[in-house]
Amino acid sequence: MSTRQEHRPAALRGGGRIRGAAVSRTLALVAITAVVGLLPWLSGRDPALAVLRARSAEQEPTEEALAAIRADLGLDAGPLALLGDWLAGPLRGDLGTSWVSGADVLPSVLGGLGVSLTLMGSAFAVALLLTAALSAPTLVRGARGTPRRAGAGSGATAAMLASLPEFLLATVGLVVLAVWLRWLPPFGWEGPRNLVLPALALGIPAGGLLGRLVDDALPAVFTERWVGLWAAAGCTPRRIAAAALRRALPAIVPQFGLVAVGLTGGAVAVETVFSVPGIGRTALGAAESQDLPMLQGSVLALVLLGTLAGVLGDAARRRLLGPGLRDAALPLPAPAAAPATWPRLALPVVLATVLLAGIAAGLPRDPRTVDTTARLAAPSWAHPLGTDGLGRDVLARLGHGAAATVGVALLVCLVSYALALLVGFLPALAAGASEVANALPPVIAGILVAAVLGPGTLGASVAVALVSWPPLAAHASALVQQTRAAGYLTAQRAIGSPPHWILTRHVLPAVAGPVARHAVLRLPGIALALASLGFLGLGAQPPAPEWGLTLAESLPYVERAPWATLGPALALALLAGLAVSLSALPATSVLSALSGLSPAGRARRTARPPAATAPPGKVAR
């Protein structure tokens, strides 16, 4: 984290950032294309054999058959020659032909992308409606002059929604709304009615995440001086609410773009459940069959979409901030921290007690004992949470899987958080890598990593970490730029404050806390991403009692034995609520941990010059 930038003029930083971001995006695109192009050779498997199996599983893999495939696809020329030939194709609008079907790649990629964009638009609309519902109480109260205290909003509800597994929502919706009630079609892609179930499965967790971020940003805005001045001048609550929303959104706008890209390429599980021919499912099939041209075309489309979303998100953020960002005259409120009262401590204590009690009750039991006579047994004294499809005790697997689930997910979350803080202070250089990593679905990243490291917990952890840090880094980067443009920091530089003092006492504390709350909100999602890779054979392997793997194994029986999925789903929901409630406490705040100041010292640090009284997006003169 360099401190030189603390004394550079905002205009110079802006120009250099734009050029650096362009270079970063170009290099990241070239790098991911090269990795995908070398995938068959990185895996150590014969690509000709993989293509033969994909074309005809019954054909004998003789040397003559394999040699014919190598000659037909030009595999004898080597990976670098194939990669060079492919790179010249997109410039001519040609993505090549499929190694498996022989069809042109471009129509298949465009068709899958069109389907995924349609599904993304519907899911994003659901997410926006849910975001508005979760943040509306805080916005209305603040606009009426009775703002809520920090940490008292809809964080627990949003965390529970964000922690819901997409594939679980998809399966439950399929069983209840399509099979039982017959209200909607169960699968296919024929009309608007086919959009409803997959849009709900994708939009509800995304709305919980975005709703929590918006609800977390609003209370600090209502502490700024302009809010009181506007109210005293007779402005209506509606106008104040609109201005407050505009003031709070700049740091979060990049997240909306990242979520949209994630909904487009990361919906592999939902597309599989509902048989939706989207781009994510196309990329997964190409990766499994080592259909290199189809995989390269799919990844190229996702990466370009991620880059476009990043550029548009950054432009929207700058538009919302207005000239205050350029002229370093943004008002920045002091971080709001509610006291750690007993009512606020009660929630995490209750959640932790219930979660630990369930884990402790399962530890004395054997999670690997198979009893085929007790398959899918209902809850009883012998099996308090019932049994799974092999007759194994669900409570035992819940207790023994805690370390593998929570421990690994927490480690990945910490690594992603640390990387995001580091990258957040280099927004231009990291823009391309962040957008490319976010555009890749965890499943595709898992395949790429497994090709090098092999399947297992280590490879799955690396793959999930590679795609978990970009949203955190985008959040950190937006906060860093906004904090550096604050008016009171301009005064600090004018009076000769050292760069390292500005960095460690002002910029870093203002960034670390919100990004930490964002990181713990993604903790259950990280656990589920690890589980999905294990379910596909790329992560934790059966019979490991990992929570997400246990949940995935129970999904085929959700209609007959819903209790088999209730245990791990409830545990993940409790984990989400516990993480968010703990992050809201001052004692566990990353801000306190980094600064090491006493309460009196924190009060002195947050006693900043009065915030500018100009409305959002304007410059105080």
Describe the structure in your own words.
It is globular and about 85 Å long. The longest helix has 39 residues, at 105-143. With 621 residues, it is mainly α. The chain folds into four domains: 18-91, no CATH class; 104-321, MetI-like fold (Orthogonal Bundle), CATH 1.10.3720.10; 347-399, no CATH class; 401-596, MetI-like (MetI-like fold, Orthogonal Bundle). The chain has helices at residues 10-37, 39-42, 47-55, 63-73, 79-91, 105-143, 155-162, 166-180, 196-221, 225-232, 237-248, 253-265, 268-273, 279-289, 292-321, 323-326, 342-362, 394-400, 402-424, 427-439, 442-453, 457-484, 487-494, 499-521, 523-535, 547-554, 563-583, 590-595, 599-605. Mean pLDDT is 77; it is low at 2-14 and 587-621.
Question: How would you summarize what this structure contains?
Answer:
By secondary structure, the protein is an all-alpha fold. It contains 29 helices and no strands.
Tag the structure with descriptive keywords.
single chain, about 625 residues, mainly alpha, MetI-like fold, 4 domains, about 70% helix, globular, disordered N terminus, disordered C terminus
